[in-house]
Amino acid sequence: MNTKELFAALEMLEKEKGIPMDYMIENIEKGIEVACKNYYGGNDEVVFKILPDKNVFDVRLKKTVVEEVFDPDYEISLEDAQKILKRKAINIDDKVAIPLDPKDLGRIAIGAARNTIRQGIRTGEKGQTLSEFKSKLGELVTATVERIDPKSGAAVIRIGKSEAMLPKSEQIGHDNLKEGDHIKVYIADVKTSEKGPRAIISRSHQDLVKRLFEQEVPEIFDGVVEIKSVSREAGSRTKMAVVSKNPDIDAVGACIGTKGARVNSIVDELGGEKIDIIEYSDDPQKYISAALSPAKVLSVEITDLENKNCRVTVPDGQLSLAIGNKGQNARLAARLTGWKIDIRPESGFFGEDEEDEKLEVAEDTTAEDTLELDDTAEENTEALDLDGEKTAEADVEADENTNEE
To answer: How far apart are CA 177 and CA 199, in angstroms?
Structure first.
């Protein structure tokens, strides 16, 4: 490879990998120094003259001019120095830079140089990857699916010039990713290890929903509407509390958009995941009542302010709706508000004084937990055994009815 080809290759590598040419040249210099040190008995006094714009790549090794050579690795005779440098003005004890052709170095020295250069480039790639991921930390980015592992279901995705892994556990349950798909992912964290930087990529993270609304709703991006809290069970349902800093702007309406256009585009991105948008309130009773939407709440009693415990009463016919399918509605409401919610029917037939029959939903309740009802409750609520599913269209219809009134 001549010098012109060398610089063309370095330039191509810079474009493809994003590694600066200066960094790669620096590692080439280190590699040649290592090779010289190994081949010339420890002599690593190498002088470089590298000018990419002029395709100049000149390497020289310094040696001392002597009358009689005892150590050819460090010394050169006056006659040889004059012959090589083609000049007479050379004196004994002068240090001269003798042109060096890297091809003349031994096989072992060349191997050592190659390893040093490769290691430098790998380090540069890792540095570029780390820098790229850190610049996008906590952000929503568009990635391209490169390939899918048929066994684990994990997807290798490309973000800019870097690759990352999207594990099956961080995908939305009904994601059916294919090679070439363009998807939005959230960069939750960046970690470094012996194998290099690793980005924690997710589509199930609750902040993915926040970033989607920031992109879709100008009022959120501008700071007029603030997202106070989000609770999510990825692929199934999300609850989000918002508040407006401008009394003339309806925070919930801004997020829903005209005829649900804004929220529906996000629902589509999330594969049909239901999104409940409620208005945040500093009054915990109002906030908890709204969080249990679409169920109607009759009253909220604060039983322990310090530990954030409350008792909620709902109409008998709305009990299943308040609890939701497998407790999902109440569970998400608890996570959204940060309160432990004890849901009871208006009739009180669960036995208010019996601790073992309380329907208490805590923040740490898992999706697998179920709320057990006795036989009487099941008979009374069978006709209204709703799963708490509330579509964005229902929100829009309620909003339009209000406007017409």
So the answer is: 19
